[in-house]
Amino acid sequence: MNILVILVPCSLLLGLGALAAFVWTIRNNQYDDMEGDAHRILLDDTYDMAPPAASKPQK
Amino acid sequence: MIAACPACSASPANYAEPGDTGAPTHQLYLPTIHCAGCIQTVESTLRALPGIEAARVNLSLRRVAVTAPFNADPTPWIDALAGAGIEAHEADLADTSDSRDRDILMRLGVAGFAMMNVMLLSVAIWSGATDATRDLFHWISGAIAIPAAMFSAQPFFKNAWTALGARRVNMDVPISLAILLALGMSVYETSAGGEHAYFDAALSLTFFLLAGRVLDQRMRTAARSAAQDLAALEPRRAIVLRGENRESTAVSDLAIGDEIWLAAGGRVPVEARLTAGSVQVDRSLLTGESDPIRIDLGDTLYSGDVTLTGPITATVTTVGEDTMLRSIMQLVARAESAKSRYSGLADRAARAYVPIVHLTAFAAFAGWLIMTGDVRYALNVAVATLIITCPCALGLAVPAVAAAATGGLFRRGLLVKSDTALERLASIDTVVFDKTGTLTRPTLTAPDTLGRDACAVLKALAMQSDHPLSKSLVKTLGDIAPARLGNITEIAGTGVQATYNGETVRLGRGDWIGTDDATAFQFGDSWPLHVTEHLLPGARGGIEQLEAMGLSLHVLTGDNATKADALGRELGLTTVIADVGPKEKLSYIEGLQAKGHHVLMVGDGLNDVAALTAADAAISPGTALEASRSAADVVLVSGQIELVSEAITTAKLAHRLILQNFGLAAAYNMVAIPLAVCGFASPLMAALAMSTSSITVTLNALRAR
In chain B, how many domains are there? Predict the structure, then answer.
C-alpha cells in the first residue's frame, strides 16, 4: 500500500492541472460564444485565434 | 491582478474605458446571422472599413463587437453590412461576457474537480478499503471537500440565509443544511474512525445543483441580451438640422428645441412639433386606430408615430419619458399588483417539500434515539436521510425544463422574458387580441378596376421606393410581373416618376398628381389609392390553430365598429369589441379574470400596456413599442402570430414535464426514504440515488426542446 504515497498526490496533481486549465479557459472568455465557436472551426482564416480579452488590452 | 478568490479574478469588471485600446467600443445587433459564412462576411466587411481596428462576431448573442475610435458614427458600417446583405442595428454596448455567468461557471468547475477526486477515493473505500487506509482516504477527501464546498456552495448559503432572514423557506434551505450537516458529520465520523463519510455526497449535491443554476443563468443572459436587442430596433439616431448641416445624433442626446429631420416611413423618436408643411402619420401604436391621421403645422407628433408621407422637419418639445406614456403608467401600476402574487411552481414545491423532509429526518433521529439511546447512530441516520432526500432532482426539475423549453422557443423566434412566463402561459384558457399591428396592418391597395397592364406599371413604380406603404403595395399586387420602365426618378417626399411606352407615369402624393386623394397613381387618368387594413400573413392560420386548441378568442380594438365587424367576419370570430380605450381594455381583462378565466393578452400598442400587465400572460410582437414589450412575458421577434399557439403548446409541454420531474424525484425518494430511516443507507447508496435521479430528470427535461 506504500504506492499510495505516490499515486494519491499524482491523481490530485492531475486534477489540479485540469482545474487550472479550466480557470484559464474562463479567464480567456472561451465560454462567451459557444455557438459561434462551433461554426468558426469551419472557417479557413486563422487570424483570430482567440477572442479579444476585454480585460487585457491587446497592445 | 492578485485576488484571493478565484471567481473574482476570473470575472473582472471589463467595461471599456475611453482611451482603453483593444476593448470593444461599439456593438451592432445582427438579427439574421446564423452560420460560419455570416460570421466571415460580417467580420471581413467590417475589418475592411477605415477606422475599425477589430470586429468579433458573437453568434450566440447575434452581435458583433467593434473596436474603433470612441465617438465613431456606426451608420456607414451598418450601410456596408446592408450592402453585404446583412441587417444590422446599433445596440447598446453591453457587457457580453457576463461576470455572474463566469462566477457560477467557476464554482461549477471547482465543485466538479473536487467531486471527481473525492469520488475516486470513495470508490476505493466502497470496494473494501479498511482501517488506516480508509481513515487516510477519508481525511484526504475531507481536505478536498470542505474548502471546495465552502467555495462552490456559497450561492446556496447566501440564498438560504436571505430566505431565513425574511422568515421564508426556499429550496436552498434544505440544500445548505444537507451540505453543512453532511460535512460536519463526516468530519466527526472520520475523527472517530467511523465507517461512513458523506464527503462525496456533499460535493455531488453541490455539483448537480450548480449545473441547474448554470442552465438558469445562461437562459436569463440570452433572454436579457435579446430584450436589449429589440430596443436596438427602435430609432436610436435622429438627424438634427444645425444651420445648413445635417448631423446624425443619438436620440438620447436630443435636447428640447432641436430641429429634427425625418424621412418618410420613419418612426418619430421623441415628442415633437411639426414646423413645416403637413404630414400623414400612422398612430395605431398609440390609439389602436388604423386610419392615418393628418398632422398640420404646429401640431404635435408623438413618439411611436410612423410618418407615411414626408420628409418632415419638427422641433423637439419633450425628451426622455413621454407624456403620453405617463398617463398609461398609472393604469399599469394598478394592474401590476395582481401579477406579483403569482408564485412559481418551484417555490410551491419547496414550501410543501421542506417541512416533510425536515420532519422525516427529525422523526428518524428521535426514533433511533429512543430505541437505541445511541446519539451518534441516531444522528448518523438523520443526516443520511437528509442527504438522500435532498432535493437534488427537485432543484434541477424546473430549471432544466425551463432552459430546454425557452431555448427551443428562442430558436423559433420566441423570446421568453420572465421566469414564470411558461407556467402562467400553460394555464391560460382565453386569448385576447389587439387588432391593429397584431392581427392587421394598414396597407395601400389598388382599386379593383385597375387593368392588368396598369397593375404591372404600378408594381414597377412601387418597387422603386422604400416607403412602407409602397412595400405593402408591392405585396398586395402579388405575383403580377412588374412592367419595364424608363427614366425612373424618385422625388423625395413626393413620389416616383417614370416613363412607360413614352408616357409619363407617376405614383405619389395626391396634390402632386393633381387629385384630392392622399395618395394617387397616374397612368393616363389618375387613380386614387386607399389605405385599407389587411390581415398579417399567418394571422388566419394562427387564429385557427388557437381555436383548434379549444381556447376562447376575443379581439379588442380602438377602431370603429364597422372595421371590427369586417375583421370578425373575415376571421370567423364573434367576440370582436370595438371602440375600446386603454382603460376599457384593462377592465375587460379584469372582468374575464373575475369570471375565473386565465387570460393571455396579445398586443403591441401603448393602449395595450395596461391590459398586457394585468393579463395572466402577455405576448407582444417584436415591432411593438418598448413599453409594451417590457410589459409582455414573451416577445415574438418576427411578429408572426402563428407562433402564439406554438408558445402555448410548448408551455403546456414544459408544465407537464416539470410535473413529471417532480413525480420522478418523489418516486426516488419514496424508495430511498424508508431505507434511510431504517438505517440501511450508505454513502454509496446516496451517491447512486442522487446521480440517477438527477440524470433521469435532466434527460426527461430535454424532451421540452
Answer: 3
